[in-house]
Fold these 2 entries.
Entry 1:
Amino acid sequence: MIFFDPNGKLAPLLDLPEMQLLKSFLHQHHAGFKVPSKHNELIIAQMLAVQQAKNQELMIGFLQLLNSLYLTSNKAEPLAAVRSSQFSDNEGIRIAHIFNYIMQHYERLITLEEVAEQAHMTPQAFCRYFKKHTRQTFVSFLNEMRINEACKKLTSGRYENIATAAYTCGFNSVTNFNRVFKAVKGESPKAYLEHYFSNVG
């Protein structure tokens, strides 16, 4: 996750006439949106490049990322459940740290206690904080992210079977993976893959 405040140091840049489309895009999607799956690889690569860049390459990469998000936004699904209030810089940094930590460790067992510790909160306070800012519980967010990562792996063709993808995404059993997958996607992993490959084929 990359956090930035469009009303902070970036404000003069976004006030330029040439940036008005991007500024409008950021305002309309301040609560976030789901990037269409066919664009995931490009967006992820650009986000990683921004996180690793320095100096002028950081700004160039950031603008390229914004432009790519803008071009995909007309086909994106709004995150209607996300709270629309503005984050302070400190809150944004804390939430970004939490999301990044989960992204880095979702492939193994992650406990509520260890993630709460990353946020310097008690588990109870963390649960309230996380749900306040995402409108999701920590467990539902983690499950959804794991299933989305499993979908990427399964559709990439690099995994021979569903069980392998399940275990590499942090699930301790195929039965649990199938149950959570259906809850998130509304269909079984097998049905999802059949629909996916029939559409791309």
Note: The chain has eleven helices and two strands.
Entry 2:
Amino acid sequence: MYQFLTVEKHETILSKQVLRSGTSIGANVREAIRGQSSADFYSRLNISLKEASETEYWLELLYESGYISKEAFNSIYSDCQELISILVAITKHNSQ
């Protein structure tokens, strides 16, 4: 997506934001898995959840600004929402 936005659409601001927040989700999940304590695990997953929510926001802006098609938005946004649901379920389990 980043390459498409920067090369095809000449968009450099929102694309960097969605790249940063989107890749941060996976990086924080990886850190959670390698965490040294349960508290560290859930802290990192909560950060991942925040980054996923931020990614949703950037995707919404990209769509509303006309940089991505409705089809692309629906597909990527759906994946992002599914990931958020998974992270919410895991982090909710900790709060019980």
Note: The chain has four helices and no strands.
